[in-house]
Amino acid sequence: MDVDIPELPFSLRTYGPDGNWSYEDGVLTGWAGARQDRFVPPTGEALDPASDAPRLLGAPEGDFQLIARVTVGFAAAFDAGVLYLHVGDREWAKLCLERSPDEATVCTVVTRGRSDDSNAFVVDGSSVWLRISRTGSAFAFHASPDGKRWTFVRIFSLGEVKTAGAALVGFMAQSPVGEGCVVTYDGLEFRPNWPRGLRDGS
Fold it and tell me: What is the pTM of this model?
């Protein structure tokens, strides 16, 4: 199913389980079902082949920044709202507002065959602004309490992205050990450029 959001210059398509995605009055809403997640354990543990989570993704051209305020209806540990980046089946990344495990936390996962997992900082409340940026084959994650001054989280690549539209970007909801959660995204913004500086708050 395709979803068009006026703030974004590209269409979005649903992937994975049904997320009941809806958009109204500037707010995008999605639902994760029970035990839905997207993670490849770095320890080599067996991964349930059915493990997946609802995603809503599109293919912007060239350099960009995707920005949203993410609000999560936390009910269980590791419930999260996510800005998601996808290059291949085992090459993807998540920038999350996650209950990890007892406090709302900005977390990141970068998967190159197997996933890493890193916590950045604790958030006061159930909302935070998140931003994914791209230039060429490089991607950056930032977070902000107010959507104005941004804290650098990480920069990375997922190999050579050979064509401008090859990287999919968008939204995901997860509830790895819980019975499900709702995630909303507002303040949606797309910028066709890379940030002026990664570590100067811009």
Answer: 0.95
Token pair 């909302």 is found at 127
- Per-residue burial over 151-167, b if 16 or more Cβ lie within 10 Å, else e, is bbbbeeebeebeeeeeb
CA distances from 50 to 33, 53, 129 (A): 13, 10, 30
Query: CA 189 to CA 20: how far, in whole Å?
Result: 22
Q: Identify which of 68, 64, 81 has the alpha carbon closest to the alpha carbon of residue 161.
A: 64
| 2-191, CATH topology level | Jelly Rolls (2.60.120)
Residue 175's beta-bridge partner residues? 36
> Could you list the pLDDT tens digit for every one of the 202 residues in the chain?
788 899 999 999 999 999 999 999 999 999 999 999 999 988 877 555 447 999 999 999 999 999 999 999 999 999 999 999 999 988 999 999 999 999 999 999 999 999 999 999 999 999 999 999 999 999 999 999 999 999 999 999 997 765 555 799 999 999 999 999 999 999 999 999 999 999 999 9
